[in-house]
Design a protein that fits this description.
Layout (H helix, E strand, L loop, with lengths): L2 E3 L1 H8 L6 E6 L5 H16 L3 E6 L8 H4 L5 E2 L4 H4 L5 E5 L11 H6 L5 E5 L8 H5 L8 E6 L5 H10 L11 H15 L9 H11 L5 H9 L4 H13 L1 E2 L5 E6 L1 H6 L10 H6 L6 E9 L2 E8 L5 H6 L4 E2 L3 E7 L4 H18 L1
Parallel strand pairs: 2-3, 2-5, 3-4, 5-6, 6-7, 9-10
Antiparallel strand pairs: 1-7, 8-9, 10-11, 11-13, 12-13
Bound molecules: manganese (II) ion (MN).
Manganese (II) ion binds next to loops.
């Protein structure tokens, strides 16, 4: 399914005068889009004199600090569950599955009677809305706005600020516009990917009226790499392997590889997209050994293959051109690659 609900659902929920405190939960390993949309939405909600709170799973990566612009984001700790105040609404942002909250899933489970609002742009595996709703506790009121053809959730949240006919009371500031533009840029690779539509450009034009420093946003997201990071990319590209047809490129990042370059998993963001930049590549696969019992796979593609469908075969998901999978338990990275390539080749041939 590509779409459930509409922006009007969000408007109706946010206009409820009894709202006092809204909790915003972006997906685990929050990226530019998840954080940009969360901070913009939180600031918009505060303009309505409603308290808002963002809780994430891990520290904010340094290169995304500009998107936060000093907004006080809370990081989930051992005592969070005991100390957290009961919200009047929980918003799931840039995802639509409780599993993508990781440890914060416990918050939703604790507040079973608190309504949930979902705002997302990922493809929906369920065939119907009622099938989708079965993934949630039936006691919980669920309001949904999912549009999988949107470039980013930041694009969707922008509508709340710039769509005058809505009259939601949000007003755009330079700080909010920077967060939103950062989110849109993050998910579209700087407006280069196929997910950038006419509406994306119209929204970017509206955001630019806030005198955004687009060069600084680009630099933070795509530039400003240390020499170690660039050397790491160099080694990945020098050693990446190609299938016989030359249309699938892949690389396995072992845990000791990162130590060599003083790198962290954050430094691998965007790397799979760079592998896709190789000419005539239909699919790029980056396999990362996170720990002895976790392997994470990034998939990037061109029109030859829908990687959200490929990821779906392994319990992962995402978008047509960018998706991911997490394998838990002890797995052999090379066997995972071999199987992914086999499945991908079948899908590419069938097209
Ligand atoms: Mn996104």
């Amino acid at each position: 399914m590509k779409k459930i609900g509409s922006i009007n659902n969000v408007f109706n929920v946010l206009s409820d005068p009894s709202l006092q405190h809204i909790l915003i939960l972006p997906h685990v390993r929050a990226d530019a889009d998840a954080l940009g949309s969360a901070v913009a939405l939180a600031r918009g909600i505060e303009q309505l004199d409603i308290k808002s709170e963002i809780i994430v799973d891990e520290e904010i990566p340094a290169y995304l600090k500009f998107i936060i612009d000093d907004y006080p984001i809370k990081i989930y700790r051992n005592n969070t569950l005991e100390t957290i105040q009961k919200p009047s609404l929980i918003i799931l942002l840039d995802h639509h599955a409780l599993e993508r909250l990781k440890q914060r899933k416990k918050i939703v489970e604790k507040f079973r009677d608190v309504p949930i609002l979902i705002i997302d742009h990922h493809l929906i595996q369920a065939k119907t809305e009622s099938e989708f709703r079965k993934n949630f506790d039936s006691a919980q009121t669920l309001t949904i706005w999912i549009e999988s053809e949107r470039s980013s959730v930041s694009e969707m949240i922008s509508e709340l600020f710039i769509n005058d006919s809505l009259k939601c009371g949000f007003s755009l500031t330079r700080s909010i516009a920077t967060s939103l533009m950062g989110g849109i840029y993050g998910d579209t690779g700087g407006l280069r990917y196929a997910n950038s539509g006419i509406r994306t450009f119209e929204i970017c034009a509206s955001l630019m009226r806030q005198n955004l420093a687009i060069n600084l946003i680009s630099n933070k997201l795509f530039g400003e790499k240390t020499l170690d990071q660039l050397n790491l990319i160099g080694e990945v590209l020098a050693n990446a392997e190609l299938t016989q047809n030359g249309n699938i490129i892949w690389f396995v990042v072992k845990s000791d590889f990162l130590d060599k370059y003083n790198a962290t998993q954050d430094d691998l963001e965007g790397l799979c997209s760079q592998m896709r930049d190789v000419k005539n590549i239909d699919l790029a696969i980056l396999v990362r050994e996170i720990s002895s019992d976790e392997i994470r796979v990034n998939l990037r593609s061109n029109q030859a293959i829908d990687v959200s469908e490929l990821a779906g075969k392994y319990g992962g998901g995402g978008h047509a051109r960018a998706a991911g999978i997490t394998f838990k338990g002890s797995n052999d990275a090379n066997l995972i690659v071999a199987d992914l390539i086999k499945q991908a080749e079948i899908m590419i041939c069938a097209k």
